[in-house]
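Re: export button greyed out
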Amino acid sequence: MRKVAVASYATSNFVRNINSSIFELACQPCIEILKDSSLGREEIDAVLFSSCSTEQYSSAIISEMLGIKPKVAYRMDNLCNSGTNTIVSGMSYIAAGLCDSVLVVGAEKADSKANRLEWDITRGSFISPVYWAALFAKAHMQKYGTTEEQMAMVSVKNRNNAIKNPSALFRKPVTLEDVLSSRKIADPIKLLDCCSTCNGSSALLLLSENKAKKLCENPVWIKGVGQRTNSASFSKTAYDLSSISAAKNAARDAFKMASLKPKEIDIAEVHDAFSILEILAYEDLEFVDKGEGGKFVEQDQLSINPRGGILGCGHPVGATGVAQTAEIVKQLTGNAGQRQIKHCKNGLVHNLAAAGTSATIIILGVN
Amino acid sequence: MPDFLDFIKKGQFRITICLSCRKKIWPPSSFCSYCLSKTKFRKIKNAGILREYVYSYKNVDCQKTTFGIIDLSGIVLIGSICDTTVYRGMKVKMTSCGISPDGKVFYHFAPSFENNNMNK
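Workaround output, generated via the alternate export path:
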């Protein structure tokens, strides 16, 4: 299998309101990448678009707008982990020798239908994601003694990290009191335990080893990936709310492929669409033992979600996994400015979809 | 084959059962996800167990609704419970189902008092 590098990246501002079409939004970070890259547009073999937008033939449209005639162009949707799934597909084309350069772009409008899975009738009228998140939170509190304060600390940390991220939707600090006194949505989840959907886009340029070494000063390598799809309906995950098994098993695959252990990860972007999910991620990624996630957040883990996570940045569904990966590449190449984490060599992306029924893990490194 | 929604519109809760291996297929499907044989709709018992529950709050008046994960004769779904005094392991029964004016499928449950009194 050939090595695959992330050669460059760009992310748009994540905003509440926007006048652009989904195509203009998607092109925005791509233009930044193409202008900065010495790679000619004629050398791009594939344009893969991550979005839950229902616009037809979108990847071909984006390719045409960008003046690219790729061999391969299509859209992928997998709800909230569309972005990382698209990255893994792009990586696979290069690893298999079918392509040398793949442009991966994710974009979503705030009013996307991806914000809820209408198909899942097992959720009854409780179709909004906050309801399943509340059930996970309640079960974790009951089984492991996790507290509402610990969940609130996740929100405080990530919202405060987002202050240093000019692309983030939320750039004002929140306090523990703000989170705990925010409106109750579904006990124990309050308004500030929840992310907000928004408009946004992010793109990455993936290259084969040969191209990366020629064109890139500091390539970041995709060292391991893991993907699992357990089901689509909540009913199949509801039997065990103590962990997200898709993430746990995908992480094991990714660590094995990367020949790394959890303790060797210096920085991670984890899927904190709700504060409880970050606590579950600590455990599912084996950064801590099962049940210790709540206490882990009290240790002020600055290397988790330094861009502000989904809670701080907002959640443009198809762009999220790409933006998470872009952040890890930014950090590993020392380009994260004010929010740079020192001495990081290996980073991890944790991206979930639909009540944790599927998950993607990507491990990246500088060597 | 009728659709799940055709039944639920009439207030009837149905799941599918595999004609070959007899497994319950939920959410309903016209074929079995275990052996890929054909299925047919069947009624199941309306008695269930509340596995986990949460209170949700409506926007304006903070009106509290109880909902939870209910194990209903071997299948799992999220339903509302018309009582705020609930507990894990509580016996419940489906009292109604249907489609609300905003187009959402709903399942309503109530405590099954006769059994709970003995087992609480």
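The mean pLDDT of chain B is 89. The button fix ships in the next patch.
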